[in-house]
Design brief:
heterodimer, A: alpha/beta, Rossmann fold, 2 domains, 11 helices, 10 strands, B: mainly alpha, ABC transporter involved in vitamin B12 uptake, BtuC, two-stranded antiparallel ribbon, 14 helices, 75% helix
């Protein structure tokens, strides 16, 4: 039984189909990567999968609930969390408070309780603070426990978004280019973090350009091109799919010489194809 | 909080006459409105140019129920507050969908409609002439005199600040601050942004309404003047001047801009120009408002001092 089922999903912006008649299933417990050239519709897809955009056609079924047309906070309450390519950190708060905001769904707090600061709330707040601190340590931000969000470096902010998303206790985590802008060491640490997420029982949908990371952690890969499915399958199959090499890896070889060992074989094939 | 309590407790030492007590009471009432309005503007990041309307409704609700229909003032105030909360909820639902300029225009329209209703329904409100209001009384005890009112308003101001600070530090307050910074970011962690904006709107309307009711009983007379668009602008100016997202900033803003016109009575006709100048000056030189700017300056000083000591030592 799949955790996420997407059926015939289409998103039109004016006359352009950013996502077109896209169907796929994500099984629980996997790392499901979505790759494709710039403008392939990856971020649009994530925005559809979190209710930020409403689809022009198609259905999104998550955990047996049809969420099509729902608001973003409803997607979150069903267990879909995400991070953003262009950060959406709350810069007017401390790092810890950012993660505490992520616990919003699990805080029961009426207006009266909040205004009068009843003892019940004080206890819940302490627990919330401790949980948030624990999550910050989990993603490797223990040095920033008392930092203000606007004083943190870029790499740490990316982790902060992951901690905030984790605080919602998601079943599915959508990571939008988590490695973009990170230095190689930080990117390497991401492999480990993503591995630990699935270890916690969180299914991961990863949108990423860093092929070393994608090939290293993915169980399943979906390749998008112009909003359509170009290929889909287990990582090993997709890596060797000539269509994919042509459309994606082929151009990647031309523009990006720093591909990792994981795709060395694909690169070899790609080079052969280009000859 | 303690500092505010201390100021309220010690202020009578320098208040020499009835007139200065009178101004202090006005400051207190405005500060209550500003603390509420600051929840909406400073924390939730939503503008309202119609809060004088809620202030006016509070004042007239109390005036009409207590003076015309002989309700006990406390009951009149509670009923009025409940009605204003309901109105804010009903009106807030659609208009808080709007953003930026559109929200400003919608709240401005709301304020103007309330003002028009108050001015034209002269059968109940006395129209532009206003109506007299009975003094506030609890049972046989009648609340009268500037000094008594000073302590009552001072106490209520502390209560308002306490409630606001509690709200800000609660999960709901965090949600408000979060959606102010990134609405998308707040929504994807499960925050219903529309609901939280509406909550801030209703709470701020309630604060304004209560202050309006008190003001009516205190001055013994209400006119539509307090429900005008200009008064809404004054309130927003106080919040912006004192410092957005700073509860004590709201109090300082209310204090400064309530006292200023009294001190500059020579400018009477130009009061609004002074307000405009203060608003512009704040936006240009202290965009974060007086209190946050000073707090930041103080922090920077403290951080710098040990460094300069180090240099001196070497």
């Amino acid at each position: 039984m799949s955790l996420l089922r997407v059926e015939g999903l289409t998103k039109k912006f004016g006359g352009v189909n950013a996502v077109e008649d896209l169907s796929f299933d994500v099984q629980p417990g996997v790392v499901y990567s979505i790759i494709g050239p710039n403008g392939a519709g990856k971020t649009t897809l994530l925005n559809l999968l979190t209710g930020i955009y409403q689809p022009s056609a198609g259905r999104i079924v998550f955990d047996e609930h049809d969420l099509t047309g729902r608001a973003p906070y409803e997607y979150a309450s069903h267990g879909i969390a995400r991070t953003f390519q262009n950060l959406q950190v709350f810069f007017n708060m401390s790092a810890l408070e950012n993660v505490m905001v992520g616990r919003h769904l699990h805080e029961r707090c009426g207006l009266g309780t909040a205004l009068l600061r009843l003892p019940r709330l004080a206890r819940a707040e302490r627990a919330c603070r401790e949980d948030a601190a624990e999550l910050m340590r989990y993603v490797g931000l223990k040095d920033y426990l008392s930092a203000a969000a606007d004083a943190m470096p870029y790499g740490a902010l990316k982790r902060l978004e992951i901690a905030r998303a984790l605080a919602t206790k998601p079943k599915l985590m959508l990571l939008d280019e988590p490695a973009a802008g990170l230095n190689p060491t930080e990117a390497l640490e991401l492999d480990d973090l993503i591995g630990r997420l699935t270890g916690r029982g969180v299914t991961v949908v990863l949108v990423e350009h860093n092929m070393r990371l994608v090939m290293g952690v993915s169980d399943h890969i979906l390749v998008l091109d112009y909003g359509r499915k170009l290929a889909e399958g287990p990582a090993v199959t997709v890596r060797n799919d000539p269509k994919v090499i042509e459309a994606y890896l082929g151009s990647a070889v031309a523009h990006d010489g720093s591909l990792g060992n994981a795709v060395a074989s694909a690169v070899a094939v790609a080079t052969a194809v280009h000859r | 909080m303690l500092a505010l309590a201390a100021v309220i407790a010690l202020l009578p030492l320098v208040l020499s006459n009835k007139y200065s007590y009178d101004i202090a009471v006005l400051v207190g009432l405005n500060a209550i409105v500003c603390i509420g309005l600051n929840l909406l503007i400073g924390y939730a990041g939503q503008i309202s140019l119609g809060h004088a309307g809620f202030f006016g409704l509070g004042a007239y609700g109390s005036a009409i129920l207590a003076s015309r229909y002989g309700w006990p003032p406390l009951a009149a105030m509670l009923a009025t507050t409940a009605a204003v909360a309901m109105l804010a909820y009903i009106v807030g639902r659609p208009i808080l969908r709007l953003r930026g300029h559109y929200l400003a225009m919608a709240t401005l329209g709301l304020g103007i409609i309330i003002f028009m209703v108050i001015t034209t329904e002269d059968k109940y409100t006395g129209g532009p002439d206003g109506i007299a209001v009975v003094p506030f009384s609890l049972g046989a005890y009648v609340l009268q005199g500037e000094r008594v009112w000073y302590w009552v308003v001072g106490g209520l101001l502390l209560l308002a600040a306490w409630l606001a600070l509690n709200l800000i530090e609660s999960p709901a307050g965090r949600a408000l601050r979060a959606l102010h910074s990134s609405e998308v970011g707040a929504e994807v962690v499960g925050i219903n942004a529309a609901r939280h904006k509406l909550m801030a709107f209703v709470v701020s309307a309630v604060f304004a309404s209560v202050a309006g009711s008190l003001a009516a009983h205190y001055s013994g007379f209400v006119t539509p003047g307090k429900a005008t668009f200009l008064h809404s602008i004054e309130l927003v100016t106080m919040v912006v001047f004192g410092g957005m997202a700073s509860t004590f900033g709201a109090v300082v803003g209310a204090a400064a801009l309530t006292t200023l016109p009294q001190l500059l009575t020579v400018f009477e006709d130009y009061e609004m120009m002074v307000f405009g100048a203060v608003m512009m000056g704040t936006m240009i030189f202290l965009p974060r408002g007086v209190v946050p700017s000073l707090a930041r300056l103080f922090q920077l000083r403290r951080r710098k001092d040990p460094a300069s000591d180090g240099k001196g030592g070497a």
